[in-house]
Amino acid sequence: MAHLPKDSKGVEVMKKTEKSYLAAPLHAEIIERCWGGSKNTTVDDVKAKINNFLKEYVVSGDKKEAFRCIKDLKVPFFHHEIVKRALIMAMERRQAESPLLNLLKEAAEEGFIYSSQMTKGFDRLIDTVDDLSLDIRNARGILQQLMSKAASEGWLCVSSLKSLSVEPEKNTIEDSTANSFKVKTQSIIKEYFLSGDILEINSCLEQENSNNCAALNAIFVKKLITLAMDRKNREKEMSSVFPS
């Protein structure tokens, strides 16, 4: 948190999270349990199952089987991950866009995915669209099209979503600088997850952000948390320790 402005929203959220969840014993497990599921099922397991059934659905087109997989996951409060991953797959593989949107549409209409989870899935993607733009050309524009289509078909309430402008907002730093820093940040974080050496990673971060730019520090913290959520409990706990 030392890398963020004291009065920023990020600091407020992190303090609340630390007090409510991260200070408790086995906090990673507590957070996972908040999403639903059994003690024998990890977040990584669920994400792998989501990826697998979405890929199988794109090939087979079998909605009934896809809905069975959703039901069998037994994680209703983690269904936003299904939405997010389906949308990313649709953005990466444009030929899969129509069947995946149809799946989400029917899942919403049949009650397999609640509207709150549908909104949350889109919001998660809005939060990471700039990072996606590094790998998916015109990611922001494509996401805007998907949102418009979903809204026109009646299974997404756009007014409940976070704002997404067609053009990214102007940052206090140049886009080229931010993009270069994001790439370097990913390597720094992966090295941290491997070594666990906070002092060394701090040194690398200071070297890449010698002017202690608040915007770059915010990018680092966001990337750290995003990468940690796709990893195991060890990395999740490491991400909660580092910003402090």
Automatic annotation (TrEMBL):
Alphabetically sorted, this entry's keywords are: Cytoplasm, Nucleus, Repeat, Translation regulation
Q: Which PROSITE patterns match?
A: MI
Q: Which GO terms describe its cellular component?
A: cytoplasm
MI domain segment(s): 45-166, 180-244
- Where primarily located? cytoplasm
Q: Where, per UniProt, does this protein localize?
A: Cytoplasm
Pfam family, any one:
MA3
According to its UniProt record, which protein family does this protein belong to? Answer: Belongs to the PDCD4 family.
Question: What's the protein name?
Answer: MI domain-containing protein
What is the scientific name of the source organism?
Flemingia macrophylla
